[in-house]
Amino acid sequence: MHSFVLISGCSGGGKSTLLAELQKRGHTVIQEPGRRIVQEQLAIQGSALPWLDLEAFLQEALKIAQTDYVTAAQDGSWVFFDRGLIDAAAALQELRGHPLLEAVSRAYPYHPRVFLTPPWPQIYKQDPERRHDINAALHEYERLTRIYPLLGYQVSILPKTTVQKRADFVLNTLGTTAPYKERKAVKKGCQP
């Protein structure tokens, strides 16, 4: 869907913060499948965790991302995905070596512009849900910067700046150039 926009890139690069800002501005945001899986698996003491059973984790991420895609509102308004099917398929393909990525990309197209958070060691933090180190995050980022262009996506690297400026960058790049307050005023039918 051309209104489905992927925010991907380096783990710990500020995706969740950016998506919270986009949501605050009235846009639909789909949370990262991986975080949701880890939270659920920790709560039930499950094993589909990236540090216990990476393949089971990725299979579950693929399934959740597919459900997110088919159930997201398709009314033409922007829907921002914190990662998505392509991220999960790329990691699973790398792990198993079976071709999967192109079929997933064709069956579930996103907006042709993908936004990637670059490595940003100054803000990178491990937590109970993100146990991998910065080197694993860098490997993931390198994989994604190779894969998205090969699938025909145009990649925009997000600037290392405030969350408000990052959100403006995303919206301006997508062609939503009116400042946030003006957009809200116009939506309500008021004069800016």
Automatic annotation (TrEMBL):
Pfam families: AAA_28
InterPro entries according to UniProt: NadR/Ttd14_AAA_dom, P-loop_NTPase
Annotated ranges, domain NadR/Ttd14 AAA: 5-166
Name the record gives this protein: AAA family ATPase
Source organism of the structure: Alcaligenes aquatilis
